[in-house]
Amino acid sequence: MHGFGLTGPIVVGQVKEFVEEPQSNGKTIRWCQVDVGPSYGESAASSAAPATSSRATRSW
Predict the structure, then answer these.
(1) According to DSSP H, which parts of 1-60 are helical?
(2) Integer angstrom CA distances of residue 24 from 7, 19, 52
(3) Sites in the chain below the pLDDT cut of 50
(4) What is the pLDDT of residue 28?
(5) What does the pLDDT read at residue 56?
(6) Model pTM score
(7) Which residues contact 35 (CB under 8 A, 6 or more apart)?
(8) Distance of CA 38 to CAs 1, 19, 26, 41, 59, Å?
(9) Please, are residues 34 and 13 in contact by the beta-carbon 8 Å criterion?
(10) Any residues with CB less than 8 A from the CB of 46 and at least 6 apart, and which?
(11) What is the pLDDT of residue 17?
(12) What b/e string do you get for 26-46 counting C-beta neighbours within 10 Å, with b at 16 or more?
């Protein structure tokens, strides 16, 4: 398996909801809700964060 120089802890989650919000300047904010499991608490599993956040998915 390739490590690609990653250092931990690394958390894997499942995207539960994904919403694109177009802005007046032509850019799009991508919000997603990520379930990271019960060991990271309810607030982490239920909070929405921009897709560019390190807690969410990568920006496309």
Answers:
(1) 41-46
(2) 38, 16, 19
(3) 44-47, 50-60
(4) 95
(5) 42
(6) 0.46
(7) 13, 14, 16, 45
(8) 27, 23, 37, 5, 25
(9) yes
(10) 33
(11) 92
(12) eeeebebbbeeeeeeeeebbe
Give ∠ CA 48-36-11 in degrees, rounded to 5: 110
Residues pairing with 14 in the sheet = 35
Rounded to 5 degrees, φ, ψ at 33 are -110, 125
Give me the pLDDT at residue 11, please: 86
Going through the chain in order, the beta strands assigned E by DSSP cover 14-22, 28-35, 48-50
Residue 40 in tokens:
């990271």
Cα–Cα dist 49/2, whole Å? 28
